Automatic annotation (TrEMBL):
The keyword Transferase does not apply. GO terms for cellular component: plasma membrane. Residues 2-108 form the ABC transporter substrate-binding protein PnrA-like domain. It is found in: Cell membrane. Gene3D superfamilies: 3.40.50.2300. It holds the Pfam family Bmp. The lineage of its organism: Bacteria, candidate division KSB3. Keywords: Cell membrane, Lipoprotein, Membrane, Signal. The keyword Thylakoid does not apply. This is BMP family ABC transporter substrate-binding protein. Transmembrane segments: none annotated.
Length: 109
């Protein structure tokens, strides 16, 4: 698929890539600086829970962002080695700012 092709091309060209949807660091260790992850299983699990306990509201929209652990970035040793501790610290600050509302991420329509 396209994503794996990009990772393979990055590895061949001695560049870095960013994985998507799940932690893809295992595909090309040392070449994946991190992965942007969608934790779809969490939303499925919680929706099923709501259906089973009778709290599900048909037609409702539930957002799973960083604060809800629905999306996030993998932060492993390869990423630390590539970007350095100062960048890792800044990423943590930004993530916390999004969670606590001091950094506003515009919604896409």
């Amino acid at each position: 698929n396209t994503g794996n092709g990009v990772i393979e091309a990055a590895q061949e060209a001695n560049f870095y890539a960013i994985g998507v949807d799940a932690d893809q660091g295992y595909i090309a260790p040392g070449y994946i600086m991190g992965s942007m992850m969608k934790r779809v299983g969490l939303s499925i699990f919680e929706t099923i829970q709501k259906i089973l306990d009778g709290t599900y509201r048909d037609g409702s929209v539930i957002t799973y962002g960083i604060a809800e652990n629905g999306v996030g970035m993998s932060k492993d040793e390869d990423m630390k080695a590539i970007v350095g501790e100062d960048v890792m610290q800044r990423l943590e600050e930004i993530e916390q700012g999004i969670i606590d509302g001091t950094i506003e991420v515009p919604e896409r329509s």
